[in-house]
Amino acid sequence: MPASIPPLKKSPFAIDPRPLTEMASSHAGLLATSRALRSLNLAGLVEANLHLKQRQRGFTEAQMLESLILLQTLGYDCPEDISELHDDDCLARGLGYTPPKVSAARKFLERSHDEDLAALRPPREEQKSFIMPASKPQQGLDLVLAGLVKRIGALLKKHHVPQKIATIDQDATLIESHKKSALPHYNNGRGYQPMVAHWSEADLILASQFRDGNVPARQAPLDCAKMAFQALPADIEQRYFRGDSACHENELITWLNDPARATEPGGKIGFCVSAVAESRLASALQTTPDTNWKTYDTEADGTLRQWAEIDFVPAQKSEHKDSTPLRYVGLRLLKAQGTLFSDGSDRKHYAVLTNLDWNGDRLLKWHREKAGTIEHVHDEIKNALGGGHMPSQLLAANAAWFTIALLAYNVVSAIKSLCLDENERNARFKRYRLLLVHVAGRMSRSGCKLRLRFQASDKTIERILKVWKIFDLPTQATAFS
Fold first, then answer.
1. Which residues partner with 445 through β-bridges?
2. Which range is most confident: 143-147, 321-325, 334-338?
3. Distance from the first to the final alpha carbon of the chain
């Protein structure tokens, strides 16, 4: 008799090469995302706003969009990966259709391209940066995104999670790309630089504007801001706006501070943006007396965070005659005695521009919070979803793919807010997929009943049942006995 082999030095089984013929899936939990999309009536939004279908047969726009949202929710970042969904019989039965093949998915994205709009781009020697106007399909996708936000807002209100305050954080992000059509960006590479506006309290993306890599973030940020505020539900009672120095732009500041904003749903927009450190402002910061600086926080290394009112009037004022006068609030980082910054100085100065009358420490702390919202969103969109990988040489096709990532982010955010426990709601996509996507399941039919059964813990099944309860949807399956 051979000597016994220790358990960790052997495999206790052999591989059976015959494939299973049952309708099973290792990510059957993805059908919970489909449930949420359908309950929010994504199909209705698509039918009203997106018209790409060129012939009667084939997939509807809503089926294509749902498939691509599910693809990104699953963690894939390339249209070619849709074959993983196409070959999954369990998902196909649960969706009611077999997801499209790669060629169909690519054609769907490329139909966003408008050659007439592409011809508007001026030669590089005439104009270095140019914001390409959105094509009609891209405008349709933007309306789908805005409509989905409003429906999620209504659902939050229905389930007693109303959002009465809307703080919009707006920022651009770099997407590195080595495609021929990608243009150089400020960080010595090539790629794209979309602008994104995020609703902080509800963790929902309101709007975006897809741009070439050579378009500065400070160029025309007002368009994205306007789309963001238009996407907010009508019952919002307070509106705020935060941004970095790219948002210190005359047209945007003038619009935000216009007294006409007070007559709109939600009322006046309180804003705070990082001020551009031009020489006159820098001089005003440095000459502010030490007695004016008030310490409000101390960092781990002993650096003091201090604030002061700055007596500064810009050369070009952007204030309406009836608007609230704008304030410049300074921030000084003061090193502890004996330590210096890398440039040899013991202090650094920054400033914010605002129309709010809050105390300086409250204002600066609130403004700093945007780093934990919009930066987090950029990271998730680019690294956890497909927004960091551009699938086409066509700008509009890439814009469509990026917007699909935003749609995926929003529907998952809604599920987290309404269906997960409090300690799970801040889960990033990596953890969310373990909680509610990568769940093994099998579809079976008994008589006239089609049933989905999961191989999962009671807690996981409880989460899935919560999705089914919150995101109500008619079903042809009979109730369980």
1. 450
2. 143-147
3. 53
**Nearest to residue 176, comparing CAs of 317, 418, 8, 378?**
378
Those residues whose C-beta lies under 8 Å from the C-beta of residue 379, and which sit 6 or more positions away, are: none
Give the predicted TM-score (pTM) of the model.
Answer: 0.93
Q: What letter does residue 245 receive in the DSSP assignment?
A: G
| Helix, strand, coil fractions of the chain, as percent rounded to 5 | 40, 20, 40
Q: Are 171 and 193 in contact (CB under 8 A)?
A: no
CA dist 354 and 338 (Å) reads: 34
Let me know: does 241 contact 167? Beta carbons within 8 Å. Answer: yes
> From CA 57, how far away is CA 284, in angstroms rounded?
67
- Residue 456 CA to chain centroid, in angstroms? 30
* 407-429 per-position pLDDT tens digit: 999 999 999 999 999 899 999 99
- Comparing CA positions, the residue from 231, 112, 239, 237 lying closest to residue 168 is 239
Nearest residue to 285 (alpha-carbon basis) of 352, 361, 356: 352
Gap between the Cα atoms of 401 and 391, Å rounded: 8
As a whole number of angstroms, the distance between CA 204 and CA 414 comes to: 8
Closest listed residue to residue 99, CA positions, set 135, 128, 60: 60
| Cα maximum dimension of the chain | 98
Amino acid occupying residue 311 = D
Report the candidate in 225, 197, 241 with the shortest Cα–Cα distance to residue 406.
197
Q: Would you state the structure tokens that stand for residue 54, as one six-digit string?
A: 């060129």
What does the buried/exposed string (b/e) look like for 309-336 if buried means 16 or more CB atoms within 10 Å of the residue's CB?
A: ebebebeeebeeeebbebbbbbbbbbbe
Lowest mean pLDDT among 10-14, 58-62, 303-307, 318-322: 318-322
Task: Tell me how far apart the alpha carbons of residues 404 and 445 are, in angstroms, rounded to a whole number.
Answer: 33
Amino acid identity of residue 375, one-letter, is: E
What distances in angstroms separate CA 431 from CA 351, 407, 416, one per listed residue?
Answer: 37, 19, 11
The residue whose two tokens read 């307070």 is 238
Q: How many C-beta atoms lie closer than 10 Å to residue 424's C-beta?
A: 14
What's the DSSP call for residue 212? B
Contact (CB, 8 A) for 161 and 416: no
